[in-house]
Amino acid sequence: MEPLVRMRNITKSFGSISALRGVDLDLYPGEVLALLGDNGAGKSTLIKVLSGLHAPDSGEMEVRGKRVNWKKHTVGAARKMGVETVYQERSLGEKQPLWRNIFVGRHITRGLWRRIDVNREKEITMELLSGFLGLSGVGLTAEARVCTLSGGEQQGLAIARAMHFDASIIILDEPTTALGVSEVRKVLSFVDRIRREGRCCVFISHELHHVHAIADRFAIMEHGKIEGVYPRESTSLEDLVGFLLLGKGGCS
Amino acid sequence: MRAFLRDHRKQGILSLAFLMLWGVFAAASPGTFTNLRIYRSFLSTLPVPLILALGMTLLVTLGEMDLSFPSVTAASAYVFAFLYSQGYASPPLALGAALAAGLLMGWCNGLLVVVVGVPSIIATIGTQFLWRGLVLLLADGLAIPLGSLRGEPLHFLLVGRIGAWGIPLQALWAVVIALFLAFLLNRHPFGDALLFIGDNRKTAAMMGIPVRRVRIMAFMLMGLLAALAGVLATFELNNWWPTQGEGYMLMVFAAVFVGGTSAYGGEGTIYGSFIGAIMIGIIEAGIVSAGLTGFWTRFIHGLVIILSVSVYALLERKKRGDEG
Fold it and tell me: Which one is the CATH code of B10-319: 2.60.40, 3.40.1000, 1.10.287, 1.10.3470?
């Protein structure tokens, strides 16, 4: 199968610190790839390169066979290629109504004055709420503020937004951290939905049992490199715990 | 209708408070408040602080403020007065130069805040002194009388009186600007960017909003509006004076916060600031015509400000309580 994303020999330094030292990674449609590793291993730098916040110092990336031009690599450009990131606590404007959060930066506008088509946007928002999120509470409107949703629902809203805008690679940064069990279950069901629709989900987390419950492959990062990518079939939760928490080099 | 009221609770409460205040004044001095004259006077003086408050609303929504606007007002109007009185430019050209000067001073504020990274409250204290000082030096501290402006077509266009009731045109301009800014804030991607940057700057950046450009543009818009306010004040009195704009500083912020715009950013209401500016503006006239001494003015201003911001804070707490 052709990969959606092919990264080759990506390097990135900040001053004298090398955050990425030659990362190779392929992402496939219909898979959940867990990105694991300690703080400082380079996970967040890698996803920032993927999602257009950083251009790397060297290396190549292809998205659906198209070579990425690093000089024009911005969040907007990455989104147009279908890469969208949901950052923990940084993806939504808490005080803003739901409909603004869905369409921020990508409003449906009309005419010379670029007037936002609020009615249409609210309609779509309500469809996403009842469809993807399965929310249809009494009194829940597109005008509700984000802070009225639970943590899992907020993650779901950001994921629904990415899917509405046809993202084919959705990166979730610690989506289950600090959530209760039922909220985690919600988020994992959203992740499964991403996979079932043939999109790719990159799932970054320290919560190994959440990761093991949902991911198809585990990419383990260490010192700015991918130490190895392990398929779920041959990797047990104990292997992950052993490798990441107990330092017993290498999974099976 | 019920949903509209629920989503606009602050605006509803503010409108009621405004009607009550007006009712109290009208009851206290019916002779004054049922006569057209006082409204004509309000309509000629209120537009200047109103326009300033509307611009400030956008900046506060963005999570910034601009304390330099009184000086920008005076400096831009000086550009107009100087060019016109010296015969260097026709009134429309001088007006254009004044607006450009306002944009430029706003741009400087924007650069200081966004590029250099000075917090806006500090940066604009600096530029407030800078522009005022510059204009005092240039004008040698003297006013510039502009009596000959009165016959100019531009004079009529900006501050003329129209209709049988002699409505001052600047009031119409203020309404047009309010409508435009309300559209910009609530129905345009630029306003959406202001809201998100004010709410959470990191989120805004992550969502692909050009944060730096929007912030600089917001300061420039404030500069432009301050320049327009300065020119209107100059036209209204056919005079430029070096301390122009100084009295507006606290009034403008009072209007914004009485109107219900959040000091934390991410929320703002043009309607609120519009009503807030009128409330703050009519208090003095109301008190004096009720036969009280003018010393009451500040006290009542303080009362109105404290009451309104307390009500908003309580509403906000209740809302958060409802939401767990």
Answer: 1.10.3470
